[in-house]
Structure formats: C-alpha cells, structure tokens
Amino acid sequence: MGAHNVDKPALSVGYGEDVFKGAIADKYLKKEGLKLADLEDYSWINDASKPDKIAKAMLAWALDKGATSFCHWFQPMTSTFRHGDTGQVQMSMLEFNRDGTTTFELKGKHILFGETDGSSYPNGGMRATHTAGGYLAIDPSSPVFLRDDCMFIPACFVSYNGKALDEKTPLHRAHQAMSKQGARLFKHLGFEVTGMVNNIGLEQELFFIPREAYERRMDLQFTGRTVLGKMPARGQEGCDHYMAPINVVGPAMACMKEIQEQCYKLGIPLKTRHREVAPNQYEFAPEFGSVITQTDQNLVVMQICEEVASKHGLVALLQEKPFSGVNGSGKHNNWSISTLCGAQLLNPGDLTKRSGNPEIFPIVMSAIVAAVDEYGDLMRLAIASPGNDFRLGAMEAPPSVISTYLGTQMTAYLKDFMEGNVYEYKPATTPVDLGVDILPIVHAPAEDRNRTSPFPYGGHRFEFRAVGSSQNVSMVNTVLNAITAKYFATISERIEAGEKAVDVAQDLLKKHSKVIFNGNGYDPKWPDEADKLGITHIDSGVEAINKLVDPKNVAMFKEMGVFDEEECAARREILLEGYIGTIEMEVGCMIDMINQYAIPSAKAAGIDTSAMAEGVTKLKAGLAGIHAATDNFESAKLCRVLRLETMIEVRKIVDEVEAECPANLWSYATYKELLFLDSGKFK
After folding, report:
1. N or C: which end of the chain has fewer CB within 10 A?
2. What distance in Å separates the CA atoms of residue 230 and residue 216, rounded to the nearest whole number?
3. CA 85 to CA 78: how far, in whole Å?
4. Residue ending a domain, choose from 529, 553, 574
5. Which range of residues forms the domain containing residue 132?
6. Of 356, 405, 439, nearest to 535 (Cα)?
7. Where are the alpha helices (DSSP H) in 551-598?
8. Are residues 156 and 17 in the same domain?
9. Shared domain check, 103 and 63
C-alpha cells in the first residue's frame, strides 16, 4: 500500500487508490477538461465528445499506478469452479509504431466496446462455433479498477442477437424494471421520484484450511468439497469457534488482514471479519452499496480470498458444504430499496416523512409479500446451487420452504391495514434492563431475529439468508428485483383501471399473507403445514431449476424486459449442465479416492475391502445411468439421487474403514488435519 502514514493505521492508508472514482478520478478528468460529474452521469457513453477524454484520463491514472494493460471484465454464465467467476482478455496498452518506437494509447472505442468468442462459454445453445460472436459493452455504473498491471473495465456480455450471455446484463434489466415501475407506482401515490435503486450487503462465509492437507485431497482440489472423510472426535459441538478470538499469531489472521488491505485499495468497504460456527470457518461483510457494484465487488473479494490464502500456506474454500458433519457456508443477501432522492422504502418512518403519505409503506409491503408468494419458486431457483443440496433445511440454513418473516408488530400492523385501519406504522423498540446500575439500557429492535426464515424482514431491509456462499448473487437479485417490479406494475395497472391503491394493497395482502410465517422454520412439521397452505416448497434444486421455464415465470420475465423464452430455456440448460457436471466430478473423485487410496490403505492394514469395491461398482452403475438419460433434466434428477443416496451410502462404508485403519497407513488427509487450523490447542 506504499509508505505507511505515521499518523494513521496501515489499513486506512490508500483506501480506494486503485479504483477510478471520486477524488482520484476527478484529478485526472480535470486534466482533460472534464469533471467528476461527467463520469458519474452515465450518459457520457453516448456523448461523442467525452469517451476519448475519459479514456485518456484512465490511461494516465493507470500508467501512474504502473498498469500497462486493460481488459473488459465480464461475468459469463459459468460454474463455481472458474477462478474469480469472471472472464477477461488482457490487452497491452502499448502501441508499436512503424519507426520502431512505442507509445501508450487508450481511446474511447477501446473502453466502450469489445468482442470475444461467445460459443466457448456455457450458453444453453444460444451460440455455436459457426455463430460465435460475443460482444462486450462497458458498464458505466460500476467503477474501473486496477489489479497488478491491468486495468479492469466492468462490462456486459451479449450475443450477436442481443441475448444475455452473462449474469450482469439481466441484473441491469431487472434493476431498471424495478426502478421504472417503482417510480410509476409512486407517482400514483402522490410521491414523484425519478427512479429507485436496490442496495445490498453481502455476508461472505468461507473456510480456510492448511494447503499441505488440501494438496492431499483430490476431492477438495477438483470439487471444493470432501466426498469422503470421518468426523474427528471434536466438531462444532461446543460452539467454541463462533465469534471466538482469531489467533493473532496464526496464519488465518494474517491472511484476513491482507485480504482486507487489498480490498480497501479497491474501495471495497470490507468492514467485518469474524470466526463462524464451524472449525476453520470465517466471515467477511462489507457495508451496503448498490446492487451492481456490490455484486461486482463480491466477485473480486472471493478471488482475492483464494489468491491471498495461498500466500499464507492456506486454501480458501468457498463451496457451500466442504465438510460433512459441520456447518456449511452461505452468503446472506441483505436487500433494500431506496428512491434516487434517498427515501428508504423499507424504513416506514423515513418513507412516511419524505413522502407525507403513511399509506405508501403498507402498499410497498403488499407488493413484496405478494411477489414472494407468487414467485417463491423463482426465489428457490435463484439459490439452487449444487452445494445448497446439503444446507437447506439442515438446521444451518433456512428450509426449502420460501416464506417471509415480518415479526409480530409488522404482521399485526398489516392485519389492521387489511381490515381498513390505515395509520402510520411506528414500530416500538424494546428496552432491555441489564439489572446493573452502571450499565446502559439496551434498546432492542422492534422484532427479534428469526434465523430460520429464508427471507426475514430485519428492520429497513429483507435478508435472503439461503444464498450459497460460492454464488454470483446476480441471479438472486435479478429475481428479487424482477418480481418486485412485477407487483409494482400490477398495483399501478389496477390503479390506472380505476381501483384505489389502498384497496388493491388490502386485496393483495388478503390473498398472499399466507406466505408470512413468524414461527420456527426448522420445525419438522413446518414443511407439511406449508404444503397445506400452498406455499412454495421445493426440496430438490433440480426441480427448482426447472421452474425457470414455467409459463408464468417466462411471462413475468418477458413483461419486465429481463429474459425472453430463449434466454430462460438457455439458462435452465446451463444450470442443469452445471449440476450434472458437478456431480460427475464428485463421483469420479470418490471412485478414484477409493481405488487409489482407501482400498490400498485398508489392504495394508489387513482390513476387508470387498464392501468398498462393491460401492465403486454402484457408483459406476449410477454414472452409466446418468449418461444414458435422454435429456439434461432427467440426467440431473438421477444425479441428485446418486449424490444424496448412493454416494452417502458408499461414504459411510469408507469412513468406517478409515475409523478402523491405523492413522499412519491412511493415505489422504483426514478431517483432523483439515480442521482446527486456528486453535492453539491443535498447533
């Protein structure tokens, strides 16, 4: 980060120096006769007089920082195994002149657009080798940044026909729909705004494990999770890891500090770091920010975690369930909306104060409640990452029932509203007296936390708690913004047809309030009760993926301008292919680990290996059945059975052999070696 300022801690020096925004950008823009306001007004991309000047300012900044290359940085539809989950082709900014000299050059056309092969990424049939064009366009809302010697330009990625080949473009479309439909609705409610913005905050969980042990685990290297492995005598039973002190002389603390340091240089406000529930599990969390920027920054954070960990003799595991028997990792997606003038839609006091209309807040809530009820299947689809097979409903993540928790006060208020009692919602805080005179009175929020709900209201925000840790959250927020936009539009249409806004909201709540559940989502009885109520309950991620082509969902996406039929079908295929490919790799690892490690170790110890050999035969038969399936949906359903039944059955056999085999003869790294990295008692 350069020389440390003697008056400031090291982490505070150089914040944002590697991102082209704010005061740093303004300095270079002024040299080209522009102002920061020109960059922040995204219409500059269509002003012929500005792109060349902005490119020249970026070039000067990059060269001053030692960067000599640039790239368009995009988010292809891809699996969780791609490092960084992004695509890029780094181009030198050096121009080679005919006279043998060189100069550095960057023009407006270079930063605005790019072209690449669209057929070599997962595309669901939208591209082929003979129709391979893929086109890149700068995203002016997400700031350009530097890493090493390269300048990264966030970009959208589409086909020759304008079909989205990435995760970013649909998110922009959904966000735009939410903004426009929100402004349309608010105009009907007497509060004219120019648009809206979705802000999110992402809580990133992950594991750090010793690299030496990782390198003795084929499954972790290839798939990110252990397909075999006996739990040691100690796991997370004592809850002794959660928010415990991070060992200041261990590698985890040094690694986390360097991750934060790199993120700060990129203007990523990675505010929080702490231990999580499972051994070797940790969490980072930034401050809230716009959904576009926060999504981009989260991808950078995950890549930095992986790269920095290796410098400290560690490996960062971002997969949702690396280890059986202890908690897996999630990425809580805290979600809110504000108007461009700053009114917070989910903060009743702020919204009422700025609008002067206490009816707006319950109308907004009616739209969200209705959206969750009707499109819960899409919310379930959005979290259908392969790793979530092992988390949802496993007492560590919300169940696969999509409901929302509003708390007793909010629920009672909306019930009053439904019955015609319209008044301003003023949630009461709860004073908590600690019983000691010198200690302050704690003023708890209006509602207690409900960590068993997939989509609880947490005071001024909703929290989508079921998101997988390895996920690019673009699809998650594409869905949330699109379904909210749809119900903003629905209310507007009914108002325009002559109905009163309050009457429409009351009607929506009466029809959809069944989706409000303030109880214990971990209660074994709840899924059956939810089924009786008609609330979305989809245990299988494969079945959830298939909901992408449900006619009502295709119609909604099309109406909101997010996806058309072809794009929905393509994404379904890509998600199914990703699921199938993941399970094929996991099964292949399990077969090889049994044949190459477990069986030889057992034989050396004089332990019978026939049951393991039979297990390998079952696994191979399962794979053969998958390959014989007639389409990806049927293949994916077979994969799920193989993964959640056959593989677990075979794993039990192998883990029992591991328990019996002398430790010096067992050849792949055990859970005891992989976990407890940061506990001094196990150093």
Report:
1. C
2. 15
3. 7
4. 574
5. 13-165
6. 405
7. 551-559, 565-593
8. yes
9. yes
User: Cα(546)–Cα(560) distance, rounded to whole angstroms?
Assistant: 20
**Residue 437, domain member (yes or no):** no
Write out 596-649 in H/E/C secondary structure.
HHHHHHHHHCCCCCHHHHHHHHHHHHHHHHHHHCCCHHHHHHHHHHHHHHHHHH
- pLDDT for 420-475, tens place per residue? 999 999 998 889 999 999 999 999 887 888 889 999 998 899 999 999 999 999 99
Kindly state the percentage of the chain with pLDDT values over 90: 86
Domain count, the chain: 3
Among residues 165, 200, 228, which one ends one of the domains? 165
Residue 135's DSSP bridge partners are 115, 158
Q: How far apart are CA 583 and CA 586, in angstroms?
A: 5
Which tens digits make up the pLDDT trace of 290-338? 999 999 999 999 999 999 999 999 999 999 999 999 999 999 999 999 9
Share of the chain above pLDDT 70, in %: 97
The first and second tokens of residue 469, run together, are 């840790």
The answer to whether residues 86 and 120 belong to one domain is: yes
* CB-based burial label for 592 (10 Å; 0-12, 13-18, 19+): middle
Our measurement of the distance from residue 556's CA atom to the centroid of its chain's CA atoms, rounded to an integer in Å, reads 22
- Asked if residue 617 and residue 538 are part of one domain, the reply reads no
The set of residues, in sequence order, having a beta carbon less than 8 Å from that of 140 and lying 6+ positions away, is: 39, 42, 44, 45
Q: Which residue has the tokens 């704010």?
A: 22
Write phi, then psi, for 607 (nearest 5 degrees). -100, 140
SS3 33: coil
Name the DSSP letter for residue 4: P
What does the block give as tokens for 480?
Answer: 């949330």
281 and 180 in contact (C-beta within 8 Å)?
no
Q: What is the pLDDT of residues 65-90, one digit of tens each?
A: 999 999 999 999 976 678 888 999 99
Residues 562, 620 within the same domain: no
Cα torsion through 255, 256, 262, 263, rounded to 10: 160
